[in-house]
Amino acid sequence: MNKILGHLKTIIKHKHYVFLNCCKAGLYWRGIKHDMSKFHPIEFCESVKYFTGTRSPIDLCKEENGYSAAWMHHKGRNSHHYEYWVDYLDDGGKPVQMPYKDALEMICDYIAAGRAYKGKDFSYADEYDGFWKLKKSKPIKMHDQTKAFVDMMLLTMKLENSNDVLRRSRSYRIYKQIEREVQ
Q1: What is the reported pTM?
Q2: What is the DSSP track for 52-104?
Q3: Alpha-carbon distance 23 to 166, whole Å?
Q4: In whole angstroms, what is the distance from residue 69 CA to residue 17 CA?
Q5: Where are the domains of the chain?
């Protein structure tokens, strides 16, 4: 019962932080509907089984089993994950550029996950230096333009120690600037 309540509390806390980030970004509806699939039995039951409260239960499940049914379900239903935007799997997978709103929601999601798991120890610098640099250091199937957009957004948050760059007036300009530079 403690794992069920702990996982439920983590989901709600995460959704709360995503909602706040999405509101700042002008993505109100996305903030409301974000990660609703986490309440589906496939995702919820597996996540409860591997819940620790300090890290993603999906990562623990992958380490133990080599895959996660919850993750397979989740990434296929939520377009704010870059894995959703990989096609041509028979040829090794080709990343497709994420639309602006999906890429921006992904950034809102990254920051919210850090807040939910780290609490008072959260910092924008840690999200950029730790999580994002680790993710970037491995070959990931993310389109170069999406990767550059995420990098610029997280770096700006680190430098400003703020998520003000999420505002549409700034984030859309960065997205379009990177789009021009990558083409």
Answers
A1: 0.92
A2: -SSS-HHHHHHHHHSS-HHHHHHHTT-TTSGGGGEE-GGGT-EE-PPPHHHHH
A3: 9
A4: 25
A5: 80-182
